[in-house]
Amino acid sequence: MKIAELRAKTEDQLKGQIVELKKERFNLRFQKATGQLESTARVREIRRTIAQINTLLTERAVVAQGKA
Hints:
- By secondary structure, this protein is an all-alpha fold.
- The protein has one domain: Orthogonal Bundle (Helix Hairpins), CATH 1.10.287.
- About 80% of the residues lie in helices and about 0% in strands.
- Helix 2 runs antiparallel to helix 3.
- The longest helix is centred in the last third of the chain and has 27 residues.
- The protein is elongated and about 50 Å long.
- The mean pLDDT is about 95.
- Keywords: Ribonucleoprotein, Ribosomal protein.
- This is Large ribosomal subunit protein uL29.
- InterPro entries: Ribosomal_protein_uL29 (IPR050063), Ribosomal_uL29 (IPR001854), Ribosomal_uL29_CS (IPR018254), Ribosomal_uL29_sf (IPR036049).
- It comes from Govanella unica.
């Protein structure tokens, strides 16, 4: 997912997406353990997307504190 798409979402949408991505990451870990994982690159994509969302949420929190 592009960072521009993430910036357009609300804080609640981003938090919901993190939950979904963590569930998917959990399922991929089990697929890897059982030898059924086909797309190993997806694990990396999910990890990076979660990091991007967390960074974006932190940026928004810092901006909100600066204005208060």
